[in-house]
User: Fold these one by one.
Assistant:
Number 1:
Amino acid sequence: MKLKALTLNGFKSFADKTKIEFQPGMTGIVGPNGSGKSNIIEALRWVLGEQSVKSLRGGKMPDVIFAGSQTRAPLNRAEVVIELDNSDGFLKQQPPELVITRRIYRNGESEFLINQKKVRLREIVDLFMDTGLGRESFSIISQGRVEAIFNSKPLERRVLIEEVAGVLKYKKEKHRAQKE
Ligand code: ATP
Ligand code: MG
């Protein structure tokens, strides 16, 4: 599966509709401080079903909507769209082309769409479950998190590796069973 394109429209600093097309190989996004690099990554996280406002550096979910600037009025809606090439069938029982949309309005109302059809958050979460993508996955490591890993004590680092390897869940279950 490949990420073909990401479109931001009214999301955080992206007041204008902005489409990023990913070419084969590695993509780097560069720009001065505050130019919106992290916002792009957050948009990706958000469209994949992120529910934690903290990890999106906001207080409440509608904070992801463009809040206005000196020259522009705030917007009432944010939209992020990703286009995926699933021709290798990585996402099981899904068509070769997938377009996933997430929208939110100022009143907090939000919607998800898969190939223009309205779906519930659950369906987005299920779509990416056990793929290493989606929310709470380690495929996106945010700014600050890298330092946190480098600066952590060996034991903390081990916990992190166990989390990534997916063994933490079993360790917790074992611990619970031993206590009973
Ligand atoms: P750095 O190199 O420092 O990490 P960056 O390129 O990652 O910078 P971001 O953190 O993505 O920059 O962008 C921060 C900018 O986005 C700030 O100027 C902030 O005001 C703006 N911003 C964040 N949320 C909104 C919003 N809801 N509406 C308008 N602007 C926003
Ligand atoms: Mg940043």
Number 2:
Amino acid sequence: VDTAKGANGVNGTNGTSNGVLNGEFDHGTQVIDENKEFTQTMPDYLSATHVLQAGFAYHLISVFGSQSTGKSTLLNHLFNTSFPVMSENKRQQTTKGIWMSLATDPDASSDPNKPHMASNILVMDVEGTDGRERGEDQDFERKSALFALATSEVLIVNIWEHQVGLYQGANMGLLKTVFEVNLQLFQKDKSTVHRSLLFFVIRDHIGHTPLENLKNTLMADLNNIWHGLSKPPGLETSRISDFFDFAFTTLPHKLLQPDQFKLETQRLKLRFREETPLNAKQTADGVLDTAETGVFLPAYHRRIPADGLPHYAGNIWRMITENKDLDLPTQQELLAQYRCDEISTACVELFDEIITPFESALNQKVVQENLGPSMKQALDVAISKFTEEAGRYHKGVYKRKLEDLQKKLQARLMVLFVAQLTAAHKNAVAIFADTIQKGIKRTGADFASLVTETRAAVLTDFIAEAQACSLDGMFVYTDELKAVEKELDERATRLRGEEMARLLTRMEKSLRTKFSSEDDGVAYMFKTISPTLYPRVWTLFTESVNSQVSVFTQRSTALNATEQENEQAVYNLKKRAWRVLRSILDEETKEQSLITRLMGYFDKDFRYDEHGVPRVWKAGEDIEGIFAKSKETVLKLIPELAIFKLEEEKAPPLAEFIGEAPVGVEEAAAAEEEDDEEDVTSPASAKTFTILTPGRITSLTESFNRQADQAFVDAKRGT
Ligand code: GDP
Ligand code: MG
């Protein structure tokens, strides 16, 4: 049966007596066919009549009675159904197997305030059971009784007045069967008490015998039957009222008193109203108190959710036909397992609709937008559907299946959550590093607050994302948060280190520029070689370095450097500064440039007179004397340059100026000294203050002598 057919089956205005359905469901649906097979039409029928989604809000009743006693006629009058009825002139069986139809109440739709029948009453019309057509088919009678008992709240027993008191009558045989199969059911199921109502409708009531008397007669017969049954162990002393309630009513002859009949069925209809336990009064022997008591006591309901009814009924029928022991609690559990699985699958489909796109896009590098709310929504949708639909089934099974479903969905969400955290983590670190690098370039300034603000901002974003995906704390992210914080701090330290290193390099460069300036630097000072040269250079050195150090300290504070980092950097800066100075001094004292300078001094004395006028040597002038004096003056300058020292031969306080190596810096400092050259910043090293080694002094002196001698020779020649 396709769905289109099912949908077309619904038609509220087609004029069938049912008023709801047409086509294949004109007469309801055949649950058990004439071959005693369970048909598969019930789901479509329940769906077309909208009972499938009713949960527990439906009722199921069955009618029993001898063949051709007007059962179908009664049902059609009571419930506005259209079960086939035997025509008055040919007596043969019309109802084959078991039919089911939904009751409708025209009164309910015309005026909701008028008293009316309960909604969603499913009525089962059971094939006549006196075996006229089927022969002595006790087997089917037994099976259909068992089936009806396992499913129905109310069993209507249709009986003619003149049959009352006929203990051997066909109906009494039927009731004996009902009681027997009931005991059979309860043998397996002693824990739960399934009550049912046997509702006797006494037909063709002439009126001579009051209902009360008929009732007493029937109850006496029923008790007789009950006493006569051999009861299974444990139920020997049980009473009929342990399992059944009884209600009785009479109806006039339909053909002889048609108007009366109509009136009475309309009245009877109202007993099939929604009933509460409080309204119903029962006598001690299980007979419902007044004639007008409602018949649907909650205790009768089999608690099979409507959407599980087809499967349950099918299973029950299968167990019955296979002659297996019918164990209702087990059946309910099996049903629960089956339905919970079905519902679970449907829930996973809903979940998939929302989650699969995210799973396909799963990527640990990209933060997926809207993931958190979607995870929450998907889980909510799936779980609430399951809770609502599966929650009506066997509690133990439901709980287990709910846990299974939750675990399954959570496992899938967990994968997304973890990937999202990883991506958010990477994102946070990337944005952090990027923002800070840009920030340094833009302002070059307050690194400390830049780090603090950026850190707070990216962490806020991270936490927001993690929180959104945490399903209200179901998933935790504290470890990942710690890892992000740690990495941010490491990044900050590294960025600060890089920034400090850049700063140091800049400062070193600017010191080099300052030291090598021709205007006021070392080169300028070297123009006048004198005992005050090195003291002046030292002053230049210490003043320049100190001013750079104070600039640096300011900057490194802004970088949020630790005391130790700052000390280390200052220490390094001072050492580097000295190396720079030393390299410039080495440059200035290279042999060629030094010779040029010395020759300049020499020339000033030898080639020019005291007025700065070039000498023109004449014969007889004291060339030798002037030469010797000039040479001597210059040669005295060389030792002045040899050692870097302050006034009165004092060594410069370089070690004090650089200061002690900060704790823990030895290694770092050692690392800086990678080249195996001797450390020129260590006062212990001979090289630190030695600008000219004795060897260089000798070669310098020789070189100078050669050039000076040449000047002498030239002068001599000139005369
Ligand atoms: P079922 O086999 O029990 O379902 O009986 P039907 O509803 O098909 O009716 C069988 C015959 O009994 C039909 O010919 C009806 O007209 C007739 N019938 C229906 N209602 C009554 C009634 O109240 N009294 C009597 N005597 N006959 C009835
Ligand atoms: Mg019938």
Number 3:
Amino acid sequence: MNERILELFQETPEAYVSGEEISRRLNVSRTAIWKHIEELRAAGYEFEAAPRKGYRLVSKPDRWQVNKLLAGLQTKVLGQKVHVYGSVDSTQTIAHALVASGAQEGTIVLAEEQTAGRGRMGRAWHSPSGKGIWMSIVLTPRVPVYFMPQLTLLSAVALCRSIQKVCQVEIGIKWPNDLLIKGKKVSGILLESSGEDERLKYVIAGIGISVNLTTEDYPEALRSIATSLAIESGQVISRELLVQTFLLEFEDLYALYMDKGFAPIRLLWEALSVTLKRPIRTSTPSGFIEGIADSLDDSGALTVITPSGEKIKIYSGDIEL
Ligand code: BTN
């Protein structure tokens, strides 16, 4: 409903829209309208209300509200230092540069917009202004380089759980780390690392969440495969609340991982997976594989059982469900 109210205001930008008109066109009561306007205000939309004229949309929440973000942050390390930018090529590039100039673990980089957002496997990541969480996190895990896939799966679990908490949508993880709602991608993770003598020097965890995009914000080619939290939940989502919730979830899981290893993370991942026990297809350098996705192994690889009963492990790449 909030989406539809916003669309109505966007038909005649800067004009007042009366409560009566909203009520008639959207078939909702005046009390319900007031409730939705209050929700939109909480998400950062500014409205002016005038007697007999109605409401006017004054500004949209297209700027990170850093004070609000910091005020509600309950983490000890993640997000204790925040760098916020308007338009950047990629928050990953900025985060790498910050590490080179001494940035500590937990530093985060947020941008309103990315002009060259990077996805996995050399793809681009659509990152329009003010609509999403385009964030990079500096991590310095004391684990060997070959543990990177585990950290990727941990990030997916943290993302999935935080989105469930904030948006109450049915969301699941497609191996290794795509978050899907009704089969469409809503969020992605890109981990980039620098290692020395087989140990990780640092990791930049790039998190992309399509939060408040409308269908029109997507290019035609993405509309059938991508979606946003606002489209799926019917609500405008507070980006600040989602970042706070995600960072806390990530910090807790990261502590659990450092203490107990990958086993508990693997169980959580399996419970949220939309991949396991389903038929999948994937292409690998040595050919095309089809089979049933069976389980995750300790390294984070996906075991697939082919129609002939052979067990094949997939370590990287993309799968089709
Ligand atoms: C994927 O392909 O699923 C991964 C997408 C990762 C996108 C995020 S947005 C913030 C960070 N900066 C980037 O350029 N990419 C990551």
Number 4:
Amino acid sequence: MSAKVIDGKAFAARVRAQVAGHVAGLKERGIVPGLAVVLVGEDPASQVYVRNKGKMTVEVGMHGIERRLPADATEPELLSVIAALNADPAVHGILVQLPLPAHLDADLVINAIDPAKDVDGFHISNVGLLGTGQKAMVPCTPLGSLMLLRDLLGDLSGLEAVVVGRSNIVGKPMAQLLLAQNCTVTLAHSRTRSLPDVCRRADILVAAVGRPRMIRGDWVKPGATVIDVGINRVEAEGRTRLVGDVDFDSVASVAGAITPVPGGVGPMTIACLLANTLTACCRIHGLAEPE
Ligand code: NDP
């Protein structure tokens, strides 16, 4: 193995420590940032995410609010919970845990969140602001991935970036962020022809596909930086393991640097959620935003 393994866990801990420092400063001025997480139904993975988010919210000194609704909650019931959180001055960030049960319209629900409190950055206003290079709430996973890239590579200008996966929550905002950093960006997806050739062009390769170990070493340009966003549960030797969208062993022997799964992008996502909540709180109170 030749690649540097990017320690997202350690980086995320530093981000959370910085957030905690700012939160302590706000508390001296009588302001406590509040993050509300809304969970509909009993999806086991979502319950784990919500529990972790709640724990880390409290660890950085923020006020954590959890709203749980049954799986058969109606759209009006969910919208009234969101309206109450929008109106609550103690709440600065609102996150609706996805996926929602199929009978609920996720776009409608997300767009009911006050854009100023939309710490996931999924509201159509924030999507538009990001796409036009204006001050937005930036989705946490791409933001965390970009922080890792900037920390490792510094200026990204002129680099060839390939993002595999075009979802609204990861692939598209990742491409926007890299474009804003002056990368030459290719956004690949399931209809892309000759995907291995496209990937081999990349100085920065971001995998956000949801297919275990799809990207292999011979798809990667020697020395490239590989960000593996994928979180896939696979059965191996009677146990469930988490693996990424990148075949770690073969890619690590070619790439210059690579994020592991777990311990790469995943921890950055929660750290960025907390950072976004702090940013939202500062903006709502008209205070200078933390760096
Ligand atoms: P989606 O399922 O919404 O999107 C997957 C994308 O991958 C689609 O654009 C799809 O293309 C593309 N794709 C699927 N198969 C192929 C293929 N064979 N070749 C090329 N492209 C393909 O997934 P998400 O964006 O929500 O998530 C992607 C991964 O990231 C998942 O593993 C998820 O668990 C993980 N994730 C991790 C997070 C973290 O905190 N680390 C946060 C969010 C997600 P098309 O549009 O053509 O169908």
